[in-house]
Structure formats: C-alpha cells, structure tokens
Amino acid sequence: MGFYHLLQSVLRDFSSILWTSTEGRASLREVTVALPSSWRTDSLTCSLLTPIAAASVPTDAHIRVETPHPVFGVRPWTQQSQGCGYSGDNIQLGGDLLRATTNNTYDHVAQLLMAEWAKYRWGVFEERGYPDDPLYPETYLDPVTNNPRPNRCLQQHSQIVPFCPTGAHVPEAPNKHNAQCIGRSAWDIIMQSKDFMNGRNVATNTSAPLIPVVNFVQETAPRFVLVVEDTAVMNLQRRWEFVRKAVRRVMVYDVPDGAHVALVIFNSMAKTTAPLMKMESLSDVRQRVGSSLPRNPSPVPESHKCVLCGLQEGLRALSEDPAGASGSTIILVTTGKGMAPQDEIDEMERLALLHRVKVDAVIYPVTENRGTRTTTHGLESLITATRGNTFTVMDEGVGNDSKVNMMVALMNALFSAVRHSSPPNASKVPVLIRNEVYQGGIASMATGSFTLDDSLGPDARFSVFYYDLNHVGNTVQLTSPSGHTIASVNMQEDGDANVIFVNIPKAERGIWQYQVENRADSHQGLHIQVVATESHTRKISLRLWTSSESTTINMTDPQSPVKVYAEVKDGIVPVLNARVTARLQRLGTNTTGSNYNSIVVELFDNGFGDPDITGGDGVYSRYLPVLYGGSGLYELSATADYNNGLAHSPVSDAFPGRAYSERERATCCGSRIKYEYIRPVTPFQRSVVYGILDIVSVSNGNDFVPPSRILDLRCLVNQTSRDISLRWTAPGDDYDWDRAHHYEAVLASSWSEAKAFAGERISGMPAPVLVGTEQSLAIQTDRYEQAIYVAIRGVDEAGNRGGVSNIALMWVPRPPTTPAIATSPRSLEPTANMAQPLGHEVTQPVRVGLNLEDMAVIIGSVGGFLIVMAALATFCYCHVAKHRRHQHKKDQDRMEGNRNIMIKTNSSLMIDRDDVHDSQESNMKDEVVLSKDGRPISPMQSWGASKLLQEHERRISVTSSPNMEISGQVNSCQNFQDPFPDVTLISTHPYPTTQTPSTTHSDPPAYAPYTTEPHTSYSYPYHPAYSHEELPPYTPPGLPSQSSQASTVYTQDIASQPSDMSYQGDPTNFHTEMPSIIGEISYCQAPPPMYAPYPDQTSYIPNAPVKVPPPVAPKPSVTARAAAITSPTSSVEPKRRNVTQV
C-alpha cells in the first residue's frame, strides 16, 4: 500500500477512536499534510485523486514526522510544557513507523496517536507509572492489602479509550496525571476544555464519525509583505530616515534567498511600491526592493491614515502569486496612534483569517510621558486571532535628533518578524548570534567575543551599526579561533544602512574575538551584531514563548500566572544543561530620563513539576517575576549558549529504515527523560526576540503571589529501622522566586483528607531554603501497618499559601517488640525563626504525636543517668588519688631509710661503638623520668646497707689486682689510711647560697666552674674482706655534714676514648663478672670547687688514653662509650654511670 493510502487509513481509524473516546462528541473533518520541498511528488501524484497544492507550511504544526528519537524511537510522543488542562507543544513520531505500517498494524498506530492527541489537545497526562522513576513508579503499595499494586486504572479498561474512565480512575495512584491535576480524572479535564465546556460539541445521535479529508501541500519559500505607514508623523526628527535604513538592511542582508517580498505604503490610501519578487543574491532585486520607499514622508496627518487600506493592498499583492496568500505573513509598521474604528479592526481580522495569513505588528515609534504607561495600539485582537507577534520601538529622540538605539531597535523588530515567519525547514534563515550595545561618551575600545558552531552555515557577517560614521574609530579588528586577524582594510561600508560590516566566507568554527574603537557621543553608541545562516543538515534552534495566549498580561491575577518557556534543540534532540537566560526590558525612560534596568530571568529544565513539567525535554521554563517597576511595555528576549562546555545532547542509536519493534512499544517518561548516550555540544550562542508584553496592572506593594506547588514530594521508609525521610524541592516566595517563609505539612489517614490539607500537623518543619534546593526531614510515627498520606505546602511571609503538593503514600511496619506510642491530635505550628535558611542539610528527626508525659519520662531518664555517671566518675577519681598519695608516702619513707647508701651496678669497662647510641638514648630517658613528677625513679637498684655491703664483698672477692691505676699510674694517699671499696658513700650537702633547693628534684644543683688545680694522686689497696661496721660514713673534705632538702649525685658516662680510669693492662685478662669501678677522685689537700662543665667529645685516637673531665651541671651531656677492644676473644660488658636521686 502506498504512503498516501496508509496515512489515510491511519487518520481514518484515528478519527473513529476519537469519536468513540469522546462519546460521539468529536472527530476529524480535515487534515493538511505538508510535504518538504525536496520531495519529488511525481510518483505520488499519480496515486492522488486531487493534485498537490503549493503553500507555505504552517509554523505551528500539530503533528511532526521526524527521524527516530533517542528514547521514544519511532513511537509518537507529546511535548508538554504547561500544566493540567493546557495544550501541549506538538506531537512527534518517527517516519519509520508509517513506513512499517501494514493492514494489520495501522489500527494500533491510530490508538497510539489518539493517546498522544488527548495529551496535546486537552492537557491530560499519563495515568500509569514508569520503570525506575522516583516520582511515578510502576507499582505502589495498596493502602488496604499492603501488597504491590500496578500504577494504572482500577481495572483494565478498553484499549480503544486512551485514558481511564471516571469509574476506573484511582486518584491516590502516584502517577503524573494525579500529581498535575490534583487527582481529577482525565475525563473531567477533557470535559472542562474549550472544545466541550459550556455545552459545546455535545454528543449527537450520529452513529458513525466523519471521514477526514486529507489535503497534501508542499513547502514553498516564505512570502512577506511589508505594509508601512507613510504619514506626517514620520517627518519628525529622523523617523522616516530610520525606516528607510531599517527596510534596506532587512531586504538586502536578512531576507533568505528564495523568499518572495512585496512592499506597500499607506496613509489615507495605500499603494504598492514593490511588487512580490523573489530575493536572489546574484541579482539587484534586493537593492531595488530595499530602496523602493519614498525618500520623504507624506504630509497626510496621522489621524487620516487607513490601516485597513494597507492590509487590503497587501493581500492584493499576495494574490498575484499563483500559490495565493495562504501561509504568508504581513508585517504591519504603524505608529499605533489614531486607532481605527472597531468595525475596521473586525474587517481586518475577517480578511486575515479568510486568506489564512499571519499579521505581525511593528509599532513605531511609541511615545510616552516619562514614568507613565504607554497607550494601546488597538491591534491586539487582530494579532491574537492570526497568532502573530507584536514588536514595539520606543521613541528616543533628543531634541530634533534621534538616537541610534531607535534605528537598531526597528531593524531588530523587522529581523525578528522575518525570522518567526520562516518555515521550520527553510534554508538560509538568518540566525542572530550576538547583539551587544556599547554606549558612547568616553573614548574606549569595544571588545567581546562570539561563537560559530557546526550547526551554522559556512558564512557569517560581523556588523557595526552607528549614528555617524565618525563614531567608529580606525580600529576594527577580528581574530579567528586560530589567531588569524582580519583588519579594517577588509571591512565594507553601507551608508544607506549606517553599517560597517565584514562578510566571513567559510568562517572558522570556534570562539572569535573582536575590537572596535568607540568614539560615539554620550547620548549615542555603537551596536555590534553577528548574523549567520542555518545549516542544511543540522541546526541548533532557540524558540521563546509564554503561557499567555495574549500579549496583554494582568500581573494582579494570581489565578493566571504567566510562565516563560524557551526550547533549545539540536535538530530534534534537546540540548541539556544549556545556559538559557530571558530578559525583560521595559521600553521608554524613567522620571530621570534614563532607561529602565532590565530584568534577567534564568530558565531551568529541572523537571520539578511547577513550572517545569518534564526534565530533559529541552524546554527551559520559569514563572514571570512580579514586575514592581510599574505597568508598561516590556520587550521579552532570550539567549542560550553551551554553558562553558557543560551542555550536551543525546545521541540516537536508531538508524533509517529501522523496523517497528517491541522497543517502540515501551513507554517513557515520567518526571525526567533518561538518555542512554549523550555527547558534549560544540560551543554555540543563540539570541531571539519574542516581542512585547503589555503589562496592564502590577502590584501596589501588597504581596498577593503565593509560593509555587511542590510536586516532587517523596516518602522513604526504612523497613528495618522504621525511619521515615521526607524529601522535596524548596519552592519560592513568589512562585519560584526567592524563598518561602515556612512550611506546613500534614499526616492524613485518607487521600481525600490529605487533599483538603486536614489531619495531624507535622511540627518542627525546617525553614525553607533557596528555591530549587532539595530539602529533607526525618520523622517518626507510631502509626504502624496503616496507609499514611503526606502533603506539604509553602507559605510566604504575607500568609499566601501555595497549592497542596503531590500526595505521597507510606506504610510503616510495626516494630517486633516496641509498643506503639499514642499520638496527640494537637498540632504544633512552625516557629517564626523558620524563615532563616538551613542550607542543604537534612533536618533532625522529630517525633509525631509526642505528649508531655512522654517528654517528662525521657528527660527524667536522661537526667538520672547523667547523675549516676557523674557520681561514679567522682568516686573513681578520689580512689585513684588516695592510692597515689599513699604509695608516694611509702616511697618517701623507703628512701629516707636508705638515703646514705647507693650502689653502682654497671662497670666502667670498654664497650662496642655500636652500643654507644643506645646507651645515650637510655640515659636521656632516665633524666626525663627523674624530673617528671617529683618522685625519685632510678634505673639502678636501691638496697639496704647490709645488702649493699654483701654485694660489694662478693665483687671484691673475684678481684685479682690489689691496686687500681688512676690516671695511668698507681699512687698512695698519705691522708687516706682506710681502704676505699667499690662503694660510694654520700652525704647531704647544702646548695650554694645563690641557689634555691628544689623540692621536685627537677633541676640539678649549680656547680662552680672547673679549675685545673694540682692535686696529689693516691692509691688504695683492696682488702679481700671487711665488715660494714668498719666503713664510716664518708664526707668529702671541705663540705659540711648538715642535711639538705635534696641530695644528688651526678655521674657521667665514660667517653668513647680510653679514660684515665680505664684499665691499661691486657683486656683479655678481664673477667666478665668483674665488678664495676667508680672513678671517683679523692682530693688529699683541698676540696675541689665543684665540677666544671664537661667539654665536647674529642676525636677518637686509637690506644691513646684521654682524661674524662668531671660531669657538668645542671644536666650532664651524654658522651660516647669507650672504644671497643679489637680482640675477638674478649668478652666486654658495657659500662654505664648512672644518675641516682635519693
């Protein structure tokens, strides 16, 4: 079956399903199918009963046949940017679906198409869940049985009707339709639409639907007629000159090749100055049409103008074309004053609808008193009826002169009208890449950049518009992405359009830089624009519109808020994560004569539900902010770019000719469209002007705008711990602007109770954060094993309450042992301090229904536990402290009993060099321990007197030499008659008068400097045995025997070289058990002046004995050990001289 007959069969079945679904209220009467101009229709014409008509393609087609979508494939799907009850944007389906359709499958295609038509036409949504969707799951818990239940109609309805009947509708099911329409059934929404409300299109007794008539048309080039007012008002200042320059610029540079253009002027009558002609770059047609306006305006007064005459003349110019006027655009340039009578406006509306033309109005110029609202032009109904646009240019005169802003604004308005009227698939349509204004007054360099991407055609044009040629300096420079410079010598001038421009053929892709010397006056400036054309194979498009069907907006009506939408697409796929910014610029000047500040509106594609319905569809949206600047005319424009490399687009895995399969039967998507493959988008920039919004009423200072609805409320229940987490996205104060004041939330036992926002209030709600930020709340409840419905809403500071959120359902299992705690029916409202932001953190858990008795028990238990712990800690501390004091006293008593005797346990033998470092570290540690807490801690053992003497006798018994060599020789001391054993007897001695005794033993006593006074050497024999009774206490000469608060003996480790007190004999004769010899020096004549500082260690000289100076106060330095004996047969024990504090 041919394409034509297949399409007719699908549309016929579609009309039948539409008739059945609406119970005999609607069916298709006529369908227009627009074919691309590149299609050959010879073979197709043979199978048609009627010839193909040539006409312009409607710019707002209901159904678009495209290439397969990355997610939906060839399956039809509806792009819905607005909420419940509002029409969608369009329906898209893959062409392969029609190619693969047979006699057995076209009825199924018609059913799919009918399901999407209900969404597009009447604003209903899907009534089932989606796999892995966080808001609209495939199944949910049945509130009665607690079993998983399919998220769809109550019972499986007929496959013919694409929506749930009223009796089968489940309002509490968590699907997209219930969230957007607050539980209303799809049939209720359809019956309230403009097609059926107030008794329109009632059911008839006709038993069969209409068979639609299918008309095939083929795309043609766009056709425009400029109808320009020529009255005496244009003779003021430079108004008419600016009209001529603007018309020339658009005709010569902006109208795409192949377009047909005519030019008509009117005052009290109308005439055609340029008939409908085809624009071609290789001929002089553009120049002739652009110069066809009269050089001087007409003297006819503005009050005598006939707008109807101009429209009729424009239709007459279009009728000369064989294709007729259908699908053409009339661009009407008029002042807007001297409004035509209502009967003339009605006649213009009738003629425009009859000939199927669109009328765009450019109101030029609009005059107003500073700070007051402009008057209306009276053409609003005509523009709305023909789905046209309105562009306004404000009068910016300076005395008898006019600003360049006025001329460029008129050029931009004509450019936008041409751009909007071009068919979607038209080739070489101009695209505005960059539009910047640089004010004059100071000599400066206007610098900036623009981006050219692969979706643009090969050529681009860089233009500088000026008021006077002298306002542009000598420097006009362009720098390509590769660094190539285009200087002023390559620039061209067109004084008839006040522009200096350069054409860039085969322009390099990437980011370009420019510099222009600005010499304009303070009330003038320079305007820089970059324009390119769209590519034949790929294009990145930016489309801008609002939710209002009229350009006249009443901001004081909270029931009809206005939303701004921008669509960014790369071909048929959306551009994700782009930076899209809308701008509202009030026209005119304020009371000081300055321009109004522009209002910047950043748009988002986040899928939060209000206002953005679906995330990832490429539609960026936001509420129009409250315009506190006053009523007036506001120009709405938008820009989009690649967001510094963060933007990306999906990649389709489908290919041409792909057969219809089960993959195309899958449904998608709920809150967000998920793509499997994405790729970065090349750098791009786009700008578009929507037109003028006529704000007729604004706030008088009273806040009447509520917060936006929360439509992503989720309940997460941990089945093990029974913790409940509520998550949602913060709304704004005025719709989705700023932040709300506080939240209100309820727990309800039924869906209807939650919808009415009744039930138990949740206290302790967190303070709202900035709009668009996710917030969380952890709660607990004792409502076990029952369905709990949760609803939330935002409240602003003025008390305006937002709509009830989507109603979330949760089921909490009963704990195995913990009994349920009764809840209290009272409610706790959030406190006033909740207006402070909390950031992004999760709020602390609160318990729902906790009464005063429960709080008293909890507080008492916690307080008692803390008291017991404090008492236990106090007892432990006292017990440990008492034990330490007792032990310290015992240690002191033990020390007092053995205070005069100390044994040295280490010998002064030579040790290996490797052991020196370890011994030094050990001694250093011992010193630290001595002074840490005041208690004497020594590495040596402290014994009683009898034990000490027994040990000394044991050691003496193994000594083979009766004499010791001190300082290399054996001497005898005449003053010492008693033998000197290996025991050091110490006595207390006072500190010098300049020192204060230390009670903590943390610092050693001070010592006098060392002197080299001569002394008499002495020798003493060793006796094999003696008793301790024969050993009197030893007191060094010259020291008193009085006791002191502390008594300390400081000894030093022997140096690594052989000392005066080391053995000079054969080391092999040393016995391993040889007792240690303390090298204490006895002075025979005079007492020493204490110990001198110990000098630094000298270099090691083998076999050279050196003297070891006495140790130094306050802390003896650590020296190295004696050098190791090289004999392999010797066994040497390390010698350590220790510090003992008694």
TrEMBL record:
GO cellular component entries: protein-containing complex
Keyword Membrane: yes
Pfam family, one: CLCA
Domain Calcium-activated chloride channel N-terminal: 8-136, 155-200
SUPFAM superfamilies: vWA-like
Top-rank lineage group of the source organism: Eukaryota
Keywords: Membrane, Transmembrane, Transmembrane helix
Region (Disordered), start-end ranges: 1112-1142
Coiled coil: none
InterPro entries with a match to the protein in the record: CLCA_N (IPR013642), vWFA_dom_sf (IPR036465)
TM ranges: 855-880
Gene3D superfamilies recorded: von Willebrand factor, type A domain
The protein's name in its UniProt record: Calcium-activated chloride channel N-terminal domain-containing protein
The species this protein was found in: Halocaridina rubra
Upper classification of the organism: Eukaryota, Metazoa, Ecdysozoa, Arthropoda, Crustacea
